[in-house]
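User: Um, any thoughts?
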Amino acid sequence: MGRLEGKAAIVTGGGRGIGRGISLVLAGEGADIAILDLDLENANRTAAEIGGLGRRAIVVRTDVSDPSSAESGVAAAIEALGRVDILVNNAGVAGANVAASKLTLDDWDACYRVNLRAIWTMSSALIPHFKANGGGKIVNISSIAGRVGGVGLAHYGASKAGAISVTQSLAAELGPSNINVNAVCPGLLWTDMWRGLEAAVGGDAAPEAVEQRRFFETYLRSNCPLRREQFPEDIGHAVAFLVSEQARNITGQALNVDGGIRMN
């Protein structure tokens, strides 16, 4: 039996990348999964993989930054799965790769809506259900970019730093209701989001000018003490631990899963 046998989880943005890795690991630990996503093609593909693991999976088209859509998505998940024990706020966007002086309000708002506000909309929609059931687990996916700012990442890094802060605030507020709230800060993963951030990290404004994979590996060798990349399932394993009974006394923490790039 897995550590999450009999549990049900919502994973936002669970159709691809880190979200897919989280969904599959949680399912492998015994959880049924509701994928709340706007990308239905990838979400349905991941749901089929979860079904292949012998777990139930549903897909609900949800704009996690919109309160009414978040509430509808949560209600659909509860109706389909019977209950929800775990919320993973994974949905995120990288935003434009531009210097802070050239960012527009639209650039800022895009990161804020999905990377930060959605944590509040989704958590707010599910907290009453958790309280009625005697507790629950929330994990917010932040980033090591939320630990230290960087050129071209002002809006993205600020939204991810905010995700860590709101994690701590929610943990303090919800602890008496037996609701654990933690964050995971991924490092460098070869996903679509990395390819969006690459120009900013690499100091090149034109991503097409960079041989992406070679730069990715070079950056890892120079900056990662373990000298190896992180994979979506690595993030999934961290999440699975934090939502398990083994982590029942852990709350308000932000765990880096980055091979040692950020040691804080």
Q: What stands out?
A: Strands lie at 8-12, 32-37, 57-61, 86-89, 136-141, 179-186, 254-257. Residues 182 and 242 are 7 Å apart (CA to CA). Residues 105-133 form the longest helix (29 residues).
